[in-house]
Amino acid sequence: MFYISEVIKGDSELDCLVSELDAFQRELYPDESNHCLNFSSVSDNKLRCVIARDKYGVPAGCGALLLQEEGFGEVKRVYIRPEYRGRKLGEQIVTSLESLALENTCHQLRLETGIHQQPAIALYRRCGYVVCEAFPPYIADPLSVFMYKNIQLTL
């Protein structure tokens, strides 16, 4: 069992998880294909972050939502520690980010991930995301996969 809570971008546990993600991605991609968001470069009102914890309160994963203009949001920094993978935690994190997006009147979520992260691509497909062309501020990159999902509040 996991529980997900929102945290501020400077949270020390979030920083630790993001550092683990950065190290993982540095092994897979050259610098020019690593499109990591530096949280300090984003204003507090444009970023929503979550941490997933196990039943003992140990951080198991994280994710972030970058709020953009015109009702768009970008899923960023989704990461699950290896020992917690395969337990549907990714789906829970993505669902949590989608709820935050709806609270912030987003109608479409987009994301960029890498071609060497097939489990992540499969996660996003299971969550209803489809492959698309690169979107601003990105340019096409042979090591990137771009995806989107239209979201709406269901009553």
Explain how this protein is built.
The chain has one domain (2-150): 3-Layer(aba) Sandwich (Aminopeptidase). The chain contains 3 helices and 7 strands; from the N terminus they run βαβββαβαββ. The protein has helices spanning 12-28, 89-103, 118-126; strands at 2-7, 47-54, 59-67, 72-80, 108-114, 130-132, 144-150. A 7-stranded mixed beta sheet has the order 1-2-3-4-5-7-6, with helices on both faces. Pfam families: Acetyltransf_1 (PF00583). InterPro entries: Acyl_CoA_acyltransferase (IPR016181), Bact_Acetyltransf (IPR050832), GNAT_dom (IPR000182). Keywords: Acyltransferase, Transferase. Residues 6-152 form the N-acetyltransferase domain.
Features:
single chain; alpha+beta; Aminopeptidase; seven-stranded mixed β-sheet; 3 helices; globular
Unreliable residue stretches: none
Number of domains: 1
- Strand order, sheet with most strands: 1-2-3-4-5-7-6
Overall 3D geometry? globular
CATH architecture: 3-Layer(aba) Sandwich
Pfam family, one: Acetyltransf_1
InterPro entries: Acyl_CoA_acyltransferase (IPR016181), Bact_Acetyltransf (IPR050832), GNAT_dom (IPR000182)
Domain N-acetyltransferase: 6-152
Protein name: GNAT family N-acetyltransferase
